[in-house]
Design brief:
The complex is a heterodimer of chains A (about 325) and B (about 260).
Chain A (H helix, E strand, L loop, with lengths): L4 E5 L2 E2 L2 E2 L1 H13 L2 E6 L6 H6 L4 E4 L9 H14 L4 E5 L2 H14 L3 E5 L1 E4 L3 E7 L4 E7 L5 E5 L15 E4 L12 E7 L12 E5 L9 H10 L3 E4 L1 H5 L20 E5 L5 H4 L7 E6 L12 E4 L2 H16 L1
Parallel strand pairs in A: 1-4, 1-6, 4-5, 5-12, 6-11, 7-11, 14-15, 14-16, 16-17, 17-18
Antiparallel strand pairs in A: 2-3, 8-9, 9-10
Helix pairs in contact in A: 3-4, 5-8
Chain B lengths: L2 E4 L2 E3 L19 E3 L1 H17 L4 E6 L6 H9 L3 E5 L9 H13 L5 E5 L10 H8 L4 E11 L2 E8 L2 E8 L2 E5 L11 H7 L4 E4 L11 H5 L1 E8 L7 E4 L4 H11 L4
Parallel strand pairs in B: 1-4, 1-6, 4-5, 5-11, 6-10, 7-10
Antiparallel strand pairs in B: 2-3, 7-8, 8-9
Helix pairs in contact in B: 2-5, 3-4
Classes of the chains: A alpha/beta (about 325), B alpha/beta (about 260).
Bound molecules: flavin-adenine dinucleotide (FAD) and adenosine monophosphate.
Chain lengths: ~325, ~260
């Protein structure tokens, strides 16, 4: 090992650390002998951080309603000034990207984003898929100071190491001035049933081939019958048929379910990069030359308005 | 109210893309206004309109050889453009880009800076936040709605489970998602007017940023580009009324059913 220490920004959500945070901790401990986690908010995450490989947990504490980016980056910058790791790994999430951007400017260090692989090759090397995941760019940091890496969800497996609870150290934010003045004044939760898109073993996704917004109900019904989650192409998110949180792809979520069922989706590179890591892929498309068939284990050339209702009927009759 | 919109001119994302010998995205072809930035331009025009005064300035770093994309933003209604263009900028990373944009934006002292959540070609999504830090401003990313009341900007910000209401005092940086507003098409009158709107072109020396941009400023290097393992296509059937059965059988074979 040539790396000594890695820090992982671990994001709290609903009283636990997010899955992507745990994925990063799990991978970090295979790369460096010393892994520290950095978190914020009122919860106590020492046990979970330790279980996944962190020996130290830097706790920034309650942010009093501030958007996390600026205060978390400020606390991290102060920690770096006291002793820098080789690199700081941050989940690719709404707040993760804010933290990375702020920290980069504060430390005057670059950020490598959309990372899906991290290796130790006499130094940290990152992997980024480009052009729809057909090619992979390998990059590394140069110059003095820690590298900042923003890693996409589902890049690594989350595996507990059985470690003892991490030792908690308080990490103060310090003065922020104008940069710390973005405040969250209200939170709105949109109800969603069934498993989360990124965690579901089955994902049924719909695209423009559904024809109209109301037809998305077929996708949701099939997903429900398979105990899965419903996803979408960007075409129908932009068209306003479904919320952005359903989007799979380069600008949406990365999913790696046991099976991904694409219904009326052409298979643009920007969509495929978010789902080609699925264990199995099924595609229903009326165009025999649709690119999605190039990566489908089972391709059905047909009308989604016939195949999907028939599938729903078949699943219902099995259930009863 | 004066609003700056950061806009990027990019190769058409629908066209085949390639890397050049130094691993930079090939930008030799025609450039267009990144569609992601048209939302910021429209949002800015509407906010200035509502405020009842002020103007929209577009700021862009990149080639000045082809300004069709920037002209497009001017044709939509922006008042003027600042372009930072210099051979020394090739290979500049997101932080270097933010330094350039910050230096250009300081000359305008806007009340609000808008950018897209991420560009279509680079999609790092970090440039606007780096920019906010350099400008010593608060930032709110992932806006699905933006309103300005007095000297406060209020944003509905997308979250994993819905959205948050977030507000910050001006001046601030806000990044907007696609769909925040419906971008207008430039009118014929707008296109004609754009031809005579001021476009200021600055160099790296004008901004006193020599040494901080280009590959030397990036402090990251590409080791190699490898071809990813390709997925093999499996079986393909034309649906004869048995498509659903085939799917059920497949799901059974992989033990999902
Ligand atoms: C920078 C950038 C980022 C992007 N990010 C994403 C992203 O994150 N996710 C994403 O999905 N896209 C993304 N896109 C968009 C992407 O390029 C495609 O435009 C989009 O994925 C197309 O969605 P679609 O397959 O639903 O629609 P289309 O490409 O229009 O395909 C519709 C398909 O449905 C089929 N069809 C039509 N009728 C029927 C029927 N009755 N039965 C069966 N099949 C039928 C057609 O044959 C066609 O193949 C991005 C684009 C850019 C430029
Ligand atoms: N070269 C540039 N010129 C102007 N704006 C830019 C430039 N690069 C990035 N931006 C802005 O920052 C946003 C996010 O870019 P990126 O960090 O590349 O994903 C873009 O959509 C633009 O609004």
């Amino acid at each position: 090992m040539t790396l000594n220490a890695l820090w992982v920004v671990v994001e709290p959500a609903n009283g636990s650390l997010t899955t992507t945070s745990l994925e990063l901790l799990s991978h970090a401990r295979t790369l460096a002998p010393s892994v520290a986690a950095v978190t914020w908010g009122p919860g106590d995450h020492a046990a979970q951080a330790g279980e996944y490989g962190a020996s130290t947990l830097y706790a920034i504490g309650d942010l009093a309603g501030a958007l996390p980016g600026a205060p978390v980056a400020a606390a991290l910058a102060a920690l770096v000034a006291a002793g820098a790791p080789d690199a700081i790994l941050i989940p690719n999430s709404y707040d993760g990207r804010d933290i990375a951007g702020r920290l980069s400017a504060r430390l005057d260090r670059p950020v490598l984003t959309n990372v899906t692989g991290l290796l130790d090759e006499g130094g940290l090397v990152s992997e980024h898929p480009i052009f729809g995941g057909t090619q992979v760019v390998r990059a590394h940091f140069t110059g003095e100071g820690p590298g900042i890496v923003v890693v996409r969800a589902k890049s690594f497996a989350a595996e507990p190491s059985g470690g003892a609870p991490a030792a908690v150290t308080a990490a103060p934010v310090g003065a922020l001035g104008a940069t710390g003045t973005a405040m969250i004044t209200a939170t709105h939760i949109e109800e969603r049933q069934g498993p989360k898109l990124e965690e579901a073993p089955v994902v049924v996704s719909g695209g423009r081939g559904l024809g109209e917004s109301g037809e998305y109900a077929l996708v949701e019904e099939a997903a429900r019958l398979l105990n899965g989650a419903a996803g979408a192409s960007r075409a129908i998110v932009d068209a306003g048929w479904v919320p952005y949180s359903h989007q799979v792809g380069q600008t949406g979520k990365t999913v790696k379910p046991t099976v991904y069922i694409a219904c009326g989706i052409s298979g643009a590179t920007q969509h495929m990069v978010g789902m080609k890591g699925s264990k199995n892929i099924v595609a229903i498309n009326k165009d025999p030359d649709a690119p999605i068939f190039q990566i489908a284990d089972l391709g059905i050339v047909g009308d989604v308005h016939k195949v999907l209702p028939a599938l729903i009927e078949a699943l219902k009759s099995r259930a009863s | 109210m004066n609003v700056v919109v950061c806009v990027k001119q990019i190769p058409d994302p629908a066209a085949p893309q390639s890397l050049d010998a130094s691993y930079n995205l090939n930008r030799s072809g025609k450039l267009i206004l990144d569609e992601a930035d048209t939302y910021g331009v429209e949002m800015a025009l509407q906010l200035v309109d509502k405020a009842g005064g002020g103007e929209v300035t577009v700021v862009s770093m990149g080639s000045a050889a082809d300004l069709a994309g920037v002209r497009n933003a001017l044709a939509m209604g922006a008042a003027k453009a600042i372009i930072v263009s210099d051979d020394a900028l090739r290979g500049t990373d997101a932080l270097g880009t933010a330094k350039v944009l910050a230096a250009a934006i300081r000359r305008v002292s806007p009340d609000l800076v808008l950018a897209a959540t991420e560009s279509s070609d680079g999609y790092t999504g970090t440039t606007p936040v780096q920019l906010a830090e350099l400008l010593d401003m608060p930032s709110i990313t992932f806006a699905k709605s933006v309103t300005v009341t007095g000297s406060t900007v209020a944003v509905e910000r997308q979250t994993e489970s819905g959205y948050d209401e977030v507000s910050a005092p001006l001046p601030a940086v806000v990044t907007v998602t696609a769909g925040v507003v419906e971008p207008r098409y430039a009118s014929f009158k707008g296109i004609m007017a754009a031809k005579s709107k001021p476009v200021e072109i600055l160099s790296v020396d004008d901004l006193a940023l020599a040494g901080q941009v280009g590959p030397a400023g990036a402090r990251q290097a590409i080791t190699e580009v490898v071809v990813a393992e390709a997925r093999q296509a499996g079986e393909k059937f034309v649906d004869d009324g048995d498509g659903a059965d085939k799917i059920v059988a497949f799901l059974e074979s992989i033990k999902v059913l």
